[in-house]
Design brief:
2 domains; 12 helices; alpha/beta; about 325 residues; binds phosphoric acid mono(formamide)ester; four-stranded parallel sheet; Rossmann fold
Length: about 325
Amino acid sequence: MATPVDSAEPPTLSSLQHRHLLDLSTYSADEIQLILATAREFRSVLDRRIRRVPTLQGVTVANMFFEPSTRTKLSFGLASGRLSAETVSFSKSGSSVKKGETLKDTAQNIEAMKVDMVVIRHSSPGAPHFLSRCTNSVIINAGDGAHAHPTQALLDILTMSEHFDAFEGLNVSIVGDITHSRVARSNINGLTALGANVTLCGPKTMMPVGIEAMGVRVTHRLDEALEGCDVAMALRIQLERQDEGLFPSLREYHTRFGITRDHLTRHPDLLIMHPGPVNRGVELESEVVDHERAIILSQVTNGVAVRMAVLYLLAPGSRTEHAGRTG
Ligand code: CP
């Protein structure tokens, strides 16, 4: 049976079964559908003249970013502001982490200032899980190493749902450095839970051995990945990895795995996504980034709505109404 993604049907659940958002792998399809349905409601708030609702008045959110970020950091800040929550922002540079303070001490000190929810981005996989064990705050993973980036996958899935009636049978190809991509892993979790077919494409040096066990198809040929594909999601090539010998040159990477205008001509219904930041001329030909079938800026707009939904559904007030949640 098709999984409805944009229907008027109300979601099956009225609350999340989890206390935190650490990883989509533990979230059920029904929970993902609840987040999407809630995000669609908040998406309409973003189109109003006054883009603010009083929903999270009295809630304090700490944005802790130990790694650079533009989209995720700003959209979490905007999302909590649009919900009337109070926000404090922390970034590694200029903090006492520079003086040697540990992650646990930093988080516990921020929590002692009466913070309710912590949004964390960290280079170490598992950092959000660690905080969920050593603090009482609600923890939201904003990207941990190469492990997971659940709100990115949710905003990607919401954006796809605006273009297709169902995920069952939807063909999504993720192209690039799969090994180092938290975006790929979270999208695989979310998309396969909803019934989409996921194909991974990239150089052998950037493809984890045995990744097929996650329920995906693997190819090393872009033409094969794009055949019958509805959505191609290109991943950022981490330029700092050039020295690791994972690919001979950026030019060769673009020749073999870069999506070009020619691909858009040959696949007239294909939509292009990218989590950003884009390396123009590497993952995507520059004209492709600006093409009408590239829905990259819709992804960014939907990021605010998805983060509003996640903050709203996990906020302490709703938690007490639904005791018995798991981590
Ligand atoms: N997509 C994404 O996570 O972008 P930022 O690193 O700018 O937050």
